[in-house]
Amino acid sequence: MKKLIILMGLGLAVSTATIAQNKKDFDPQKRAEKMSLKQKEELKLDDQQYAKVLKLNTEKATAMHKERMEMQEKRKAEREQYDKSLKGILSKDQYASLEAKRAEHKEKMKGEMKNRKGKKGHMPRKRMNPDNN
């Protein structure tokens, strides 16, 4: 039973990470332009410098996007292989129970994400010592 819970948690963690990545899938060109404009303002770049920085940022953003997509495909393949192996180990009832728990967890996470909608960044950390502000 412990192993089943651990395996289930692992599967959910992988699927949750993939879902989170899908939502952050921005156009690399837009990302590069936004970053370059910010650098132009902050660093007071001239037009020639801006053009070079934009080119560099576009290359970097495109490479990062490609890397992210490749990693996403790799995780998807690993998750499918994991599920296939798990199906071979578990009975039909056990696997159905696992799927039901996954769906339940997914719905719970959707609710939590809706509650965070509009909030930027990560959840605030709790301070260890609230007296130190």
TrEMBL record:
Residues 65-86, 99-115 have a biased composition (Basic and acidic residues). Residues 65-133 are annotated as: Disordered. It comes from the Bacteria. Keywords: Signal. Residues 116-127 have a biased composition (Basic residues). Residues 1-20 form the signal peptide. This is DUF4890 domain-containing protein. The lineage of its organism: Bacteria, Pseudomonadati, Bacteroidota, Cytophagia, Cytophagales.
